């Protein structure tokens, strides 16, 4: 079976080299030559010079040059060649000037922005750390001081009395030049947050374009959102009046900060926020960064990949971000008392989209990446598997508990459907075929079992 880490090819050709390049630019892996898509041997003639000739072709066609490990093996009495390549430390690797990455079990041509991202990751430097064209005089000194005051009040870092010393310490000045992060936070960056109140996709009631330093833009955008979402009041046992927003304000703030901190500022597109009667949608340029995937964000133990490290650090020091990689956990926690609200996230082209919506609304279709507030379809087979996964368990253990000997039948009938529901997840998602792999209930899975009783 082909996976993120394994590719099958019937014979050696350019597609083998492209697959090796894609694997080298992602997590590494293997290309098995001499088998069909299902892994069945199809008869490959391997002469004494075959492997060396293939290695030479790979080396000549790639830059930086790839030299994978290669070995001849037997499968069902027929010869196959296995090429193994680790994740390459200097990215991106090209095949004749074109760059590829591995996405699930296929190779994807990289966009220009993705190529730049890989280069920056290889240099351990984020985009916002690069020098800007503005000078210190172009920055808002009052806003800078307010930022320092907020940082000091949180106590997460000790700042000096001299503003320029602090800017250097926080890497807003690097090698004597203002970085993009400083321009974005304290200057007048060439980017905006576009917010609209919509009655329908074609009918807009109110709109605003927020431009200016990100520090003030976040609060201005949140004020506009509050203006257009419903606020109700209720009384508790002590007769105190309590507010209840249409959506938890903590979740809205997290989604706004996520869009601002993690958007791709190389893109000319703006952040767009649409407020409807029954849903609110956040869309920002830039897909998930690095190796982070949509499935990872469904888990509470995901490891964040940060596109704009200095921006993330700034909001962390002010206390707006509590800890890296907890934003979506906090959103789900905020939604725990809003059982009528669903939450879904997806990548659309080069954009990331997050949506809060009223469950049962006909205008907000459900996707596989909905949160546990939407009940997925669970077959009896999947239900049996979930009941075995209250603690992380490996494949062999699960097959034994279910009394299933056939591995393929277990995968197709039990495991694959369970993973698709989002109720079950891998403990080592970055290495799906790891011998140490186990399967565990997601937060959605735990809630589903609890509701089932």
TrEMBL record:
Schlafen AlbA-2 domain sequence ranges: 2-109
- Entries under Pfam families matching the protein: Fic-like_C, HATPase_c_4, SLFN_AlbA_2
Tell me which EC number(s) this protein carries.
3.6.4.12
Record carries keyword Mitochondrion: no
Molecular functions per Gene Ontology: DNA helicase activity; hydrolase activity
The residues the entry assigns to the signal sequence are none
Return the InterPro entries for the record: Fic-like_C, RecG_C_sf, Schlafen_AlbA_2_dom, Schlafen_AlbA_2_dom_sf
Residue stretches making up the Filamentation induced by cAMP protein Fic-like C-terminal domain: 381-442
- Which Gene3D superfamilies has this protein been placed in? 3.30.565.60, Schlafen, AAA domain (3.30.950.30)
List keywords of the entry alphabetically. Answer: ATP-binding, Helicase, Hydrolase, Nucleotide-binding
EC main group: hydrolase
PANTHER family to which the protein is assigned, alphabetical? GLPR-RELATED TRANSCRIPTIONAL REPRESSOR (PTHR30595), SCHLAFEN ALBA-2 DOMAIN-CONTAINING PROTEIN (PTHR30595:SF6)
From the Swiss-Prot or TrEMBL record, give the protein name. Answer: RecG ATP-dependent DNA helicase
């Amino acid at each position: 079976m082909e996976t993120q880490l394994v590719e099958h090819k019937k014979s050696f050709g350019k597609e083998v080299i492209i697959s090796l390049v894609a694997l080298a630019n992602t997590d590494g892996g293997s290309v098995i030559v001499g088998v069909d898509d299902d892994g069945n041997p199809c008869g490959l003639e391997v002469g004494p010079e075959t492997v060396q000739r293939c290695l030479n072709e790979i080396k000549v066609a790639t830059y930086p040059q790839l030299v994978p490990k290669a070995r001849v093996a037997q499968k069902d009495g027929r010869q196959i060649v296995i090429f193994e390549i680790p994740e390459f430390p200097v990215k991106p690797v090209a095949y004749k000037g074109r760059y590829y990455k591995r996405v699930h079990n296929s190779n994807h041509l990289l966009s220009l922005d993705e190529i730049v991202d890989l280069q920056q990751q290889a240099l351990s430097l984020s985009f916002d750390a690069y020098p800007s064209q503005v000078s210190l005089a172009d920055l808002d000194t009052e806003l800078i001081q307010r930022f320092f005051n907020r940082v000091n009040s949180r106590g997460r870092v000790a700042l000096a009395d001299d503003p320029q010393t602090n800017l250097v310490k926080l890497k807003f000045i690097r090698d004597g030049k203002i970085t993009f992060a400083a321009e974005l936070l304290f200057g007048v960056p060439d980017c905006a947050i576009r917010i609209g109140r919509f009655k329908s996709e074609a009918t807009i009631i109110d709109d605003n374009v927020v431009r200016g330093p990100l520090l003030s833009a976040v609060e201005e955008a949140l004020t506009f959102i509050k203006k257009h979402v419903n606020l109700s009041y209720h009384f508790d046992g002590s007769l105190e009046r309590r507010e209840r927003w249409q959506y938890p304000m903590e979740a809205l703030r997290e989604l706004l900060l996520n869009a601002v901190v993690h958007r791709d500022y190389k893109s000319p597109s703006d952040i767009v926020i649409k407020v409807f009667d029954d849903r609110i949608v956040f869309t920002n340029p830039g897909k998930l960064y690095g190796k982070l995937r949509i499935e990872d964000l469904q888990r509470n133990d995901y490891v964040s990949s940060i596109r704009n490290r200095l921006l993330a650090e700034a909001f962390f020091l002010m206390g707006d971000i509590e800890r890296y990689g907890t934003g979506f956990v906090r959103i789900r926690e905020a939604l725990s008392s809003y059982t009528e609200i669903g939450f879904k996230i997806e990548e659309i082209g080069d954009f990331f989209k997050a949506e809060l919506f009223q469950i049962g609304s006909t205008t907000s279709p459900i996707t596989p990446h909905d949160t546990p507030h939407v009940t997925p379809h669970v077959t009896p087979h999947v239900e049996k598997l979930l009941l075995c996964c209250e603690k992380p368990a490996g494949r062999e253990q699960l097959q034994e508990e279910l009394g299933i000997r056939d591995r393929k039948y277990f995968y197709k009938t039990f495991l694959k459907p369970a993973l698709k529901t989002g109720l079950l997840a891998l403990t080592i998602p970055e290495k799906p075929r790891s011998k140490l792999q186990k399967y565990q209930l997601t937060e959605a899975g735990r809630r589903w079992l609890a509701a089932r009783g």
